[in-house]
Amino acid sequence: MRRGLLIGLGIFTGLVLGWAVFERYHHNRVFAGVEAAGVAVGGLTLDEATAKIAAATQNTTPPRLTLKAGEKTLEVSAAELGWRPDARATAERAFAVGRTRFAERLAALAGRVRVPLVPRVDALALEKRLQALARTLEYPPQDARVVFEGGQYRVTPEKAGLRLDIQGAIETYVQHPQQTVLEVFPQTLTPRLTASMLEPVARKANELLRPLTLLYAEPSLAGGGQVHKRTLSIGEVAALLELGEAVRVNPTALNKILAQMARHDRPAVDARYVMNPEGQLEVRPEAPGWKLNQPESRRQLERALLRPDLTEVALVVAPKAAQVRAADLPKAENLELLAEATTFYGGSSNERIANVHAAARNLDGYVVPAGGVFNFNQAIGEISPENGFMEALVISGGRTLKGVGGGVCQVSTTAFRALYQAGLPILERNPHAYRVRWYDPLVGYDAAVYQPYLNLRATNDTPGPLVVRTAFTRSTLTVRLFGIPDGRQVSVSKPVVLSRTPHPPPQYIVDKSLRPGQVKQVDWAVDGYRTRITRTITRPDGRVVVDVLNSNFRPWRAVYQVGPPAPAPADEVASR
Lowest CB count within 10 Å: 61, 101, 446, 504, which one? Predict the structure, then answer.
């Protein structure tokens, strides 16, 4: 019996030792008998199992997945949604077998534990694919709208929108990548404005639809007081309204209508000196004008539009008196010459000469009242073909090129010299970008104008009105200023050149419109200059005022347009 006890004890001890060895061996290994993703991994370390599973599943065909969004379905490969085999997670799942449940070890030893392939999902790839799907299915809500059709307003019904719960679908699939159906739940988007909300607006707007007559009455002081009428059709009235949650007036359309009615405005005409048929200077009397008061007319029209009982609205027109009246002008024989200047433009093109003459004619007889401002652009009017101006060379955008009014600066420069020599305060004077030969030899004694940006302005600080007279020939222009002298004495120095910068080398630009070898000069080289002119004004009381006129002319390169190179002869081309 003792022997049997010893034998039993030995067997038990052997089993315990064997089990201990088994446990120690599998401490860092998958328990024997475990199969993962169809691969036997029992006895392998975690890294070994991962590598074996990865090798076995690298060509695994991804499962098909059905995407469902409401009633619409789409079957795709799970790979499109970021599905990938996860060898490491599968190995970890196999390694966990039997670690907490003894029955699993026994089942593994019996070969009954098979761990399925564990996939993973790339959330970014999944989101990208679902967003692409959403773009084909989602649509925003459409508010109900009030539209004008067939002469009346009607309401178009609202439409609900659709949005997919992308984030919810991503979370679901990332947590359960083994599923074969992924539902992306649609969410209904409610419109902000419904038909029931806008029906009252449409009814109110329809009540406002009627022909509406605008009355523009010229003030009686203009002589006659003509009334201009413009009847707006129902469609035009509708265009003046904006309909949303309420009926409002469309400010842009309203301003457009008022701008059209403002075409009946007539500017006041100042009295000025003109030559009569006998060649004597006489006064042409002023003419009053009128102007639409647009802010007040806008308020009147806004009120009328929203009152269906009104079918006429009187716009507000204000009289405009001339600034210079004939009664305020001294007799022509009482005016004295205050200053004059002459410039030369012999050799100018016919177009440039025509522009000089057009601007000089408009300037002739211009009157600046005492304390008023000489405004060159205002005096000559708009520089346009309709006002007698032609295309000639102008300086624009750093280039000399053709533009309407080239040569007008000859007139502004001549007028500036007269104003400066008369001792008048200069409010605005702009030098040219570069030295212009027409104004030589007095460098820096010029004035550029370019409507509406550059102007020539000066204050008439003499005791009486200032009268501008012009005289011109084909090559000379003289501007004379007449007025009431106050005893001031003016001396203007000759220009002093402070610095000189050589002009850059010429520039050649290929112009395909020219024939090969043809050269056409479009800009002329001139050095850059910094100049200064000093003016000394001695007042009758002995007070002396000194000011300086600085000019900075850029160096200017010559520019040539050249024809394209002549094509090489055929035999020369073939030999290259």
Answer: 61
Peptide bond into 177 cis (omega under 30): no
pLDDT bucket at 479, cuts 50 / 70 / 90: very high
Residue 49 has pLDDT above 70, yes or no: yes
Write the single-letter amino acid at 6: L
Instruction: Among 281, 299, 326, give the residue marking a domain's end.
Output: 326
Q: Determine the residue type at 144.
A: A
**pLDDT value at 241 more than 60:** yes
Cβ burial of 433 (10 Å; 0-12, 13-18, 19+) is: middle
Q: Is the separation of the CB atoms in 170 and 114 below 8 Å?
A: no
Q: Which of 25-29, 326-330, 448-452, 513-517 has the lowest mean pLDDT?
A: 25-29
pLDDT band at residue 23 using 50, 70 and 90 as cut-offs = low
Closest to 44 measured CA to CA, from 89, 87, 91, 85: 91
Mean pLDDT computed over 292-309: 94
Together in a domain, 279 and 406: no
pTM exceeds 0.70, yes or no: no
Residue 526 vs residue 3, higher pLDDT: 526
Residue 568: the pLDDT is 61
- Residue 380 is classified by DSSP as H
Query: Does residue 287 form part of some domain?
Result: yes
- Contacts with 256 (C-beta within 8 Å, 6 or more apart), sequence order: none
Where in the sequence is the domain holding 106, given as residue range(s)?
A: 2-62+84-119
Per-residue pLDDT of 501-511, as tens digits, reads: 999 999 888 88
| DSSP state letter for 117 | P
Cis omega (within 30 of 0) for bond into 452: yes
Query: Measuring CA to CA, how many Å separate 133 from each of 65, 215, 296, 447?
Result: 14, 59, 56, 67
pLDDT at 7 over 70: no
- The residue type of 173 is Y
Question: Cα(368)–Cα(464) distance, rounded to whole angstroms?
Answer: 9
Is 422 in contact with 338 (CB distance < 8 Å)?
yes
Candidates 19, 169, 49, 211; CA nearest to 117 is 49
pLDDT on residue 184: 87
List Cβ neighbours of 348 (8 Å cut-off, separation of 6 or more).
356, 407, 410, 438
For 203-215, what is each residue's pLDDT tens digit? 999 999 999 999 9
> 96: left (phi > 0), else alpha (psi -120 to 50), else beta?
alpha
* Encoded tokens for 175: 């947590």
DSSP 275-298: E-TTS-EEEEPPB-EEEE-HHHHH
Element (H, E) at 489: strand 489-492
Q: Are residues 405 and 537 in the same domain?
A: yes
Same structural domain for residues 299 and 365? no
Computed over every residue of the chain, the mean pLDDT equals: 86
Which stretch of DSSP H or E encloses residue 566? none
**342: which strand partners?**
478
